[in-house]
Amino acid sequence: MLKRLKEIEARKTEIRNSIESGQNLTETEIQGIDVELTTLATEERGIFTKMDILERAKGGNLGSLTPVTEQRIGFMGQGGLSAAEFDQAEARKTKEYRSAFFHMLQSGKDRLTTEERNILERGNSIGNGRNLVELRYTSASGSAGAAIPQITLDQVVEKMLIVSAVYPFISKYNLKGNLKVPYENVTNDAQWTAESTPAASSTDALNNLLLGAYDLIKTVQVSRVVEQLSVDAFEAYIVDKLFRKLMTAIENAVLNGTGSTNNQPTGILNAVTWNGSNQLNYGKSGANLSSLTYDNFTALKGMLSAPYHPGAYWVMSSNTLYSGVCSIKDALARPIFLENAQWGLSTANGQQVDYANTAVVGRILGSPVIMSPYIPDGKILLGDLRFYHFNLSVDILIEKSYEIGFLNNDVWYKGWLLADGGVSQQEAFVMMQPHA
């Protein structure tokens, strides 16, 4: 199924390039594009649905395949949501909200029906965060937009899991406002005591990783031809055109984000304090990839504390892997890198995509390898990515403007979100790089 998703993605890119080329399209051609994009979007959603069902079936958590009406008595729980917050979240899951949302983007608020206005107001009726004020839809002319439908957000997340390398393996949250992630700071071993002897109290302590909220914005300029597309086709176009850049920025920030000084998440490479206990410099002064040796990998793996080995991944660029690592062999001429034959492919005869396996390029010394274009050539990271935490603290919003592109008959769309990320346990990561 992953192969078909890539084919759909490639075809939508061709259509997008055709629209953006500026060529004059007849009404018949526009209708043809509309029909094709609608068909592609429907097929894509069907594949995502099948993947989700099969993934749950694999884990023995199939659940009910038919919608049921949930009987709720009070609101004790519901993920900590109040009654109003729960109702808002439920509204965003409906097809009616999705249809009204994209109708508003295409035609403006003035063209909305009373029913469409009501469902949008229901889905954006309260601030999205207890200590953050979210821009949200209102019937007023100055309204800034609306949170994207849950159906569309699910598509964005699915795409991110497919196109991203590191993101599928980190700890992800969608909790409103600032988030504190507790982790052990000082711990003491258990002590043996004699019978009836009181145990001495220990001085264990917890610390917190505090995740705030930083703006991530992407604007795109498109032809007003897209306003003639159906809801399905328009949604597919926006998800492909706008959110791909947001996904790229998040993936880059997970590794290279520079933190609060630049109003962005703190990436792994900048969050960890690198020194002789967790960093290895290979080769001599001015070394390059040809200086990598088998012993470098065994030494680096030895630096990683044993509790983090089961969940550890190697992260490196494609150039580092194929120009340096693949040529390394042991004393018996066996390559250190063992390729995963299923990398980039669907599993179970094309019936399921398992991101935890298909994103893995291969293995080095038993640990899986993933490639990322956002880690510098020559640097090799080893660590348990679950100890990087990323929180989307406000739902993604979309706005549009005619003013900027008025002379070109274009329209501008803006995607906006608030997020932050950081490392909770620095000892979960080690790294090696060429000697300076």
UniProtKB/TrEMBL annotation:
- Which InterPro entries does the protein's record reference? Phage_capsid, Phage_capsid-like_C
Entry superkingdom: Bacteria
Q: Where is the signal peptide?
A: none
Instruction: List localization entries.
Output: Virion
Any idea where the Phage capsid-like C-terminal domain is?
145-433
What the entry lists under Gene3D superfamilies is as follows:
hypothetical protein PF0899 domain, Major capsid protein gp5
Q: What is this protein called?
A: Putative Phage major capsid protein, HK97 family
